[in-house]
Amino acid sequence: MATTEYTARPGDTFCSIGVKHGFPNCDKLRALKENKDAFEEGKAEGEKWALKTGDRVHIPKTFWGNKRKATGKQWDFRRPGEPPVSIRFVHGQNGDDTCAMHPTLKHLHVSNYKTDQGGEKRDKDFPDKDKHEYHEDAHADEDAFKIEVHDAQTKEDILIGVSLEALKPTYADDKEPGKRGDPTDWEEYDDTKKGEGRKLDGCSVWRMPIDEKRPGFWEKKKAKSTKTARSRLERLLRLPQDTGLTDDELTEYTTLSEAHAKLARTRFRTCYLRLVVDEHDWNARTDQTLRIEPLTDTNENKKMEILDHKVRAVYEVEECDGDPKCRAMCDVPVGSKTGNNKKRRVKLAVHILKDSTGGGSITVDQAKNHFMRYYRQFLAQIDLSFEFVAEPHVVDVPANMLEIADVQGNGTALGKAAEGGKEIKVKLTVDGNQEEVKVNTVANENPIKTARRLAAAIVKKFKDEHQTDIDATASENPPLKDEAIGSADVLIGKLGNDPAPPAITIDEVSSADANHGIRCEAIDLTKEVPDFKGVEAVSGNIYERMIVKNYDTGADRVDCCIVHELGAWGEQFRPRGYEDDNKKQPSAEMVNALIADCGVIKNSSELRVFAHETGHILSDCGNHADGDNSEQEKWELMSSPQHGRDQALNHGKRISNPHPDDPTANPKTYANNGVQYDDDANTMYNPAKEMRKNTAPAGRKILGNW
Which one, out of 31, 122, 215, 334, has a CA that is 20 to 30 A from the CA of 17? Predict the structure, then answer.
């Protein structure tokens, strides 16, 4: 038999292809030997007659016949099987009945709502699985979605054969975990993983209701002619083959709402659904959530990105006579690679400091697994992931920095210029050679100028005496609140830049200038590294600065320094307590760095710390969403750390995106007068938007393209 070839498009089934080519169903297509060989013979039961985009389908020749009809009248001929069954993802719109007009979702997003909550203020119950009509509180979550089936042939009011499934990405063999790489294909999870929330079988879809209480809804207005009614529908609906209206009905129901009411009876929708990325959110609503969480138990799973997944909706066509029945299918990606909210990656450099045993405070694999599993779960809700710009590595604990004008105030005046004419003396040893370096302070000079002259003197001394080239770099620290002048540091060498750094010890330091005291400190590996106090957040203390300045690798990434023990679980250096934060930025080395206790990775209750501190960096903001300590504020990732650091449903992990049209409906979390701000501004703070801006301070581009 002569045949033609057809290339399957997204959403095609054998039935829909048959209908497009003049057949009532898929019987003729399945009977062809060419199609049997390709789609039935030698395939597993679940794969038979499963059609994918790009498949080549053979179409038998169509034979047309003649039918006698009287002249002088208009006749309506309808192809059998029209309209074909289809399936799509929708969000819905405004609670009206014009469901045919609702936009089709081209991609889905991980929800940033608490799983059982809805409403613009995130304080209403999320409707359960029995609610398939429009619901205001569910609609407020712009990431919630439904599956819609369009089936004009079925007589049922509820269809059962719908499933929702996560498709995992597969990559080329050379794709490294934590590095970029586009998927080569997508495939289903195995049966074990499907049982962990990666597939929703037997989703119920209900026939969309008609609101019989709408004024004038059932009023019948006689149209002038069938032709007038049909042309109006064609113009307004652009779906002339989709109406399912008889000629008699067309002359009676002529308003747009009435036509859509009829169309609604051919469309079926599920309840409101959400994408989630951890077991706690999934357990809260197992019948309304799809879990996209690639576990890191194998190297292959470590490669997987949450935002590289796809979601598949499948409907087994009820009226199909084939065995197995045709399946209408729709795949959409998680996140978008285009537009203002396209997927981005936080660039990371991870430095693991040695502990008292001489080994890393944690292993490289422990660090990588933590970021790949948990860090990207928190960021996925705002379409962010990460990439390692360099392999995480174990590094030495530094002891190579001098501080001029103590920021902690250990008996030394803060924010003052030098007295002048007083000696500063430093004795240090470099690669076994000890030298004493002296400089005199100059009256009214700021600490940074004293630091620069001391750095130059150190370099010159070792060059002149030992022909040794060493670096000594002076850097200025921002002033504390209510101070005009900040301290300064001299970094002798930089451990992060030199694969074989010189052995440096600072033996003695002294200063006769009361305003420009000098000190050096060594990190005691048997004790915790002290964390900054209060307004020191903008600069960090001497221990933190020494770590960060040694391992700062650039302004285009977040440097994560992991220590054996820190006074706080995590610290990031940010403006805090200033009327104009932009004038009191951390120094260039500190602004995009964080320090964390290794227990963040060892202790499963501290999962959000890296994401929380990164949130401060990306949003360039020093606030915590403490506010009035309400429940909804405790759910926020940027809430105060005592509000739970793991992934429990009620703990702080949400990155909310307050409703843009009504500031009064936003969580109180983000009004400055409702959170931990020290200024009096009363502007709104939108965490999702701020973390994705990637513009402040000038010159930082921490977010990379997908």
Answer: 334
Q: What CA–CA distance (Å, rounded) separates 541 from 537?
A: 8
Q: Which residues contact 424 (CB under 8 A, 6 or more apart)?
A: 404, 438, 439, 440, 441, 450, 454, 509, 510, 511, 512, 513, 516, 518
What's the full length of the chain, in residues? 706
% pLDDT > 70, the chain: 81
Q: pLDDT grade, residue 670 (50/70/90)?
A: very low
Pairing mode, strands 274-276 and 124-125:
unpaired
Nearest to 10, CA basis, from 45, 43, 51, 47: 51
Please, what is the Cα angle at 98 between 92 and 102, to 5 degrees? 40
Contact 591, 617 (CB under 8 A): yes
Residue type, 122: R
Strands 124-125 and 117-118: antiparallel
The DSSP 8-state label assigned to residue 387 in this structure reads E
Nearest to 317 by CA among 152, 89, 146, 164: 152
At residue 229, φ and ψ (nearest 5 deg) are: -65, -45
Helix or strand or coil: residue 566?
strand
**pTM, rounded to two decimals:** 0.86
pLDDT (average), residues 648-657 = 88
234 — pLDDT class (breaks 50, 70, 90): very low
The contacts of residue 86 (CB under 8 Å, 6+ apart) are 11, 16, 149, 150, 328
Range in 335-339, 430-434, 682-686 the model is least confident about? 682-686
| pLDDT tens-digit series, residues 615-629 | 988 887 777 775 555
603, 628 Cβ separation under 8 angstroms: no
Residue type for position 338:
T
The DSSP bridge partners found for residue 429 are 434, 505
Spatial separation of the C-alpha atoms in residues 107 and 591, rounded to whole Å: 34
Q: How far apart are CA 319 and CA 473, in angstroms?
A: 77
Please, which residues have CB within 8 angstroms of residue 385's CB and are 6 or more apart in sequence?
305, 306, 307, 343, 344, 345, 346, 376, 379
Place of tokens 């929702």: 164
Range from 32-36, 617-621, 639-643 carrying the lowest mean pLDDT = 639-643
Q: Tell me: pLDDT of 450 over 90.
A: yes
pLDDT at 97: 54
In this prediction, residues 234-246 reach a mean pLDDT of: 44
- CA pair distance 127, 272, nearest whole angstrom: 8
| DSSP alpha helix (H) spans, 98-201 | 136-139, 191-193
For residue 239, name the pLDDT band (cuts at 50, 70, 90).
Answer: very low
Name beta bridge partners: 475.
489
- Residue 106 and residue 336 in contact, taking contact as beta carbons nearer than 8 Å: yes
What sections of 620-664 are H helices per DSSP?
631-634
Confidence of residue 366 (pLDDT cuts 50, 70, 90): very high
Residue 291 neighbours by CB distance under 10 Å: 22
User: d(Cα 173, Cα 214) in Å, to the nearest integer?
Assistant: 59
Cis peptide upstream of residue 697 (ω within 30 degrees of 0): yes
In angstroms, the CA 157 to CA 154 distance is 8
How remote is the C-alpha of 156 from its chain's centroid? 40
The single-letter DSSP state of residue 690 is H
Q: Element (H or E) spanning 247, and its range?
A: helix 247-252
299 φ/ψ angles, rounded to the nearest 5 degrees: -65, -35
Greatest Cα pair distance, the chain, in angstroms, is 116
- Asked whether the predicted pLDDT for residue 246 surpasses 70, the reply is no
- Alpha-carbon gap, residue 55 to 39, rounded angstroms: 10
Place of tokens 């979550």: 141
59, 283 in Cβ contact below 8 A?
Answer: no
Nearest of 115, 43, 93, 343 to residue 208 by alpha carbon: 93
Task: Name the token pair of 182.
Answer: 């586009």
Q: How far apart are CA 206 and CA 265, in angstroms?
A: 10
